[in-house]
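Section: protein folds

Sequence with per-residue tokens
===
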Amino acid sequence: MHSNLLIFIWRRKLSFLLLASGLVLLGLWTWAILIDTTKTTLTQSQPQQQQQQQQLAPSSESSYQHVHIIQKLIAQANRVLRAERQKDNADRSPPSPAQQRLLGNVRFVRPTQAKKAPLPLAESFLFEQERLKILEQQQRQRNAGMEELNANAEDDRMLSSAERQTQYEHELQRMGVPTVSGIGPDGPRAPSERLVHLDLKGAPPKLSFLKQLLPVMRALGATGLLIEYEDMFPYSGALQPLAAHNAYKESELKDFLETAWVEHGLSIMPLVQTFGHLEYTLKLQEFEHLRELPESPQSICPSRPQSMALLEQMLTQVIELHMRPSANASPATPELPIKFTHLHIGCDEVQRMGECSLCRQRLRSEIFLTHVISLAHFVRRRWPQLNVVIWDDQLREMTLSELQNSQIGSYVEPMVWVYANDIYHFIQPQLWDTYAKVFPSAWTASAFKGAFGESLLVPPLQQHLENNIRWLAVIAKEGGRFSKGLRGLALTGWQRYDHFAVLCELLPVGMPSLMTSLSTVSKGYFSTNPRDNELLRVLRCVFQPDSRRSGHPWLELHPNAHHSQLFAVCSYPGHLVYKYAMRLYDKLNEVNVYLQQAREHSAWLSDYNVRHNFSSPLRVHELTVRTPQLIEELRGMARESQQLLWEVYDEHTVAEFVEQHIYPSISALHRQLASGQLLLQRRTWPQRPLPISLELRQDMGLITLEQQQQQQQQHPH
């Protein structure tokens, strides 16, 4: 009986093994399904989509791990089946004598294949079908999950775009950066060309300092320079009187121009005024006869043949300097050592045009268009590779038919300039449409300094930044009107409003405004992320701005402030001059408040007290006790400006800056001190009423009582 049981078990050992393996696999499969169902139910109960995705991913990974385990078990079971089948085939041979002695009287019977073969095949197919079912079910679950994830991801993308713009605008408000609709990370692309305007008239920076600016401007996204020389160009021959005594030397200027292109890839667009703003030429006795009006050297008379001859000579010298190779260049040097494709001939703010005896019989529009086309034709005839650019303001009042009939669109490209924040107030949509019908392409111009005050010391950074950001929106909206689009944006930085005006903001003082606006227009929007803003890559700061630690944004601008604390703690070309200008700005405000308080708001040091030499000595002493100290402080700042500005400017510009900004306050303090000392010398005072001098009465139009009685006698009624 025992022997028969052993024989039966031995013959059915494969069936028992397969049955046990099937039970194990069935249990694992049931366990995997239960866990997957439980986690899926928990995942669907979460209220937020983001938590659904975070929980769905681990559930899917867990299910895939279970499937992998089952696949490995199935493969192991198949290997066991094959091994048992091979062993069973080997057992069909008669046992050896040693095996017979081991098993005793047990007799092995050769089994038939009809009873044994179907069992392993059926079990093998069973495992394969179960595996396929599991994989198919998991694939359906994965597909359903992916469809849901895709739908949720699409919603998240729509929500994240709106949320990102909202968060972006909120951060701009915290930083004090102007917010313009449509301008942001998902907004339009940046202008293709970004030119930086260098206004050299009357306050020329040293070329060594300008070379320091080149890598900074290039790193911030500048593509070229718009250089306005005026009297700083080294004119020669008959035009030599046009050049100032401190004009650049030709060799130094050409070296700077080649450095800009060869080392930094910045193109050059020279700007030569050829109609208005010719004060530096027409002020001279040699060219006085070419003025539109004898009393004003502002604009030239285009009706005189000598005028065109003079302008052609000026343009020829400027163009040839920018085209000739340097003196130490090899014979194989190309004709153009710099990228020079456009020439700007100015023609803005032409005052009193058409008022001389020769121009009076013609229309103003005809005079302007004929003059501009003649100049452009001269340039294009001799240098056909050059394109001519003009300022647009004289075109704004002309009709579409006047512009089209003149064919000016075939000769020049307008540069549309507006420095205010409301650009459409000056350039309405109808004017954009007119320009697009006349000109295939155009340029635009913003400002980073020299636009909000004729004699400012520090430019209002926030206002300039808003002007540039609004130009980005206008370019994106109006560029499609032109067949060749808008070429780019020029960031102007005026040094004087005209040749006779005093200095406005110096270039080093305007560097923070330039860097902020240039990095913004080059990116197409102001980046609020300090790691993504090129501005911080250029600035060398003693600390890394981190709003999360300090609780304050890394850049803070305010309408009534001229700067951000960021530029006071970082290094960049001209940073010492900028920091000095900020201290001088505060000191001058302090002195002005001190003088105004004593002269206009006090009762003892007013002009009335000084004229009548009538005041309280104690009060006068109190009001003038700080005056000597303030005079010495301003003298110290004058000496400091001389040391700092010598790194950037020559002695003439330094002296002009001190005389314009510091000396008036020193002079006012001296006058106040002298008035106070005069009042302190008196020891006795007259009785009231105090007499009024006859001269003062006449200036004020007052009459005495005696004069009034005489008038009444002469006119009794």
Summary: The chain is about 55% helix and 10% strand. The two ends are 165 Å apart (CA to CA).
